[in-house]
Design brief:
CATH architecture of the largest domain: Orthogonal Bundle
Low-confidence stretches: none
Number of domains: 3
Number of strands: 12
Largest sheet: 6 strands, antiparallel
Strand order of the largest sheet: 4-3-6-1-2-5
Order of helices and strands: HHHHHHHHEEEEEHEEHEHEEHEHE
CATH class of the largest domain: Mainly Alpha
Helix content: 40-55%
CATH superfamily of the largest domain: Globins
CATH topology of the largest domain: Globin-like
Shape: globular
Mean pLDDT: 93
Distance between the termini: 22 Å
Structural class: alpha/beta
Length: 402
């Protein structure tokens, strides 16, 4: 267990908040520059998040939140759990933490210069290792649970693509079966798989993809949207065929459907944010749940993944769906029993009219979409405990940190 930080250390960390507000992004950018100079450490990261600046910005927000909450670290519990789950998916181990410590402390000294006094550096060293020990301890618990679970494993396990299915003009699903033919760990609806991929011309890449299949013991399914100039998504769509072997770590993530599931439930998604909800819907369907609300925004009917599945669930009375087409005007024939189509994006005004304060809301999609939805729900009186969200990649929006 991590030793509590002393009063002096916490006081110094709090005093650093203005400096982090002014220079936090410069510090984390320099930190990643140092980390990525080591090829062994570089392979642990999604490099695309470095190129677009998303990862340094997300970390800067996280470090700032840590400093602001140094006297009330219980407020960071959700963020710590998400980080631990992501680290386990990427197979981060205790021996990786000293590299991050050296890079972070070196970056603080480099950016702050003479302002980085020995006292400040000592305080940040203590604060880093305090948090690191918490993460290492939690990650060890998760690794042990994965190893003990039926069909579970630790590390990278080879899976073969057993089937490809085109879900829309932008989304393709890949069903994955373990090469060893043994059972797989039953995932919790909403979790994701992490992949270690060797992409020709780019080398080692890491990605996380939500599991879109209902829980089972034999295989998983992921559903991947092609992203413009996406290194990995283009490769998956263009080159990965049935029979391709991919390296996969055990299911991870804390954006999950409760057991028992809360009722009523509203799913809010945009783009490929629907994928964890397809898994959740599969579990709810198996449990004969009813009264689910499904609200989804996509570009056009041609980009709408899992449309037939949603319409089938609606026809059977399990859910009521609202589908928004941001770049098309729906035809009357596209409406169906329990399904209403809309032209344009889902707006805060529309959502505000539809709020059910007794419902639990699950939200997944681009950061801006989630930020607007969360703000609308809170303004409409939905308790924060009934608002759950998942983000792709790194949370580079202050609303989504913590």
């Amino acid at each position: 267990m991590a030793s509590p930080l002393d009063d002096k250390t916490r006081s110094i960390i709090k005093a650093c908040v203005p400096a982090l507000e002014a220079h936090g992004l410069a510090i984390t950018t320099e930190m990643y520059r140092r980390l990525l100079a080591n090829p062994d450490i570089r392979d642990l990261f999604n490099i695309s998040h470095q190129k677009d600046g998303e990862q340094p910005k997300a970390l800067a927000l996280a470090v700032l939140a840590y400093a602001r909450n140094i006297d009330n670290l219980g407020a960071m519990a959700g963020a710590v759990e998400r980080i631990a789950e992501k680290h386990v998916g990427l197979n981060i181990l205790p021996e990786h933490y000293p590299y991050v410590a050296d890079a972070l402390l070196g970056a603080i000294a480099h950016v702050l210069g003479d302002a980085a006094t020995p006292e400040i550096m000592d305080a940040w060293g203590k604060a880093y290792w305090f948090l690191a020990e918490i993460l290492i301890g939690r990650e060890e618990q998760i690794y042990v649970a994965h190893a003990a679970a039926p069909g579970g494993w630790v590390g990278w396990r080879p899976f073969r693509v057993s089937r490809r299915t085109v879900e829309s003009e932008t989304v393709t699903s890949f069903e994955l079966a373990p090469v060893d033919g043994k059972p797989v760990m039953r995932h919790v609806p909403g979790q994701y798989l992490s992949f270690r991929l060797d992409v020709p011309g780019y080398g080692s890449e890491r990605r996380n993809y939500s599991i879109s299949s209902a829980p089972g013991s034999n295989a998983y399914r992921i559903s991947v949207r092609r992203i413009d100039n996406g290194v990995v998504s283009d490769w998956l769509h263009d080159s990965v065929q049935e029979g391709t072997v991919l390296q996969v770590s055990a299911p991870a993530g804390d954006f999950t459907l409760g057991n028992p599931a809360p009722a009523p439930i509203v799913f809010l998604s945009a783009g490929s944010g629907l994928t964890p909800f397809i898994s959740m819907l599969g579990a709810l369907d198996a449990a004969a749940a009813t009264g689910v609300r499904y609200i989804h925004t996509t570009r056009t009917p041609a980009t709408e993944a899992f449309g037939p599945y949603i319409r089938d669930l609606a026809a059977r009375g399990m859910l009521r769906a609202d589908l928004f087409y941001s770049r098309a005007t729906p035809q009357a024939a596209q409406d169906a029993t329990g399904v209403t189509t809309h032209a344009g994006r889902m707006t805060p005004t529309w959502l505000a009219r539809e709020i059910d304060r007794t419902a639990t809301y699950y939200i997944c999609g681009p950061d801006g979409f989630m930020r607007d939805a969360i703000a609308t729900l809170k303004a409409g009186g939905v308790p924060e405990s009934q608002i759950r969200f998942e983000f792709f990649g790194s949370a580079a929006d202050a609303t989504l940190v913590g």
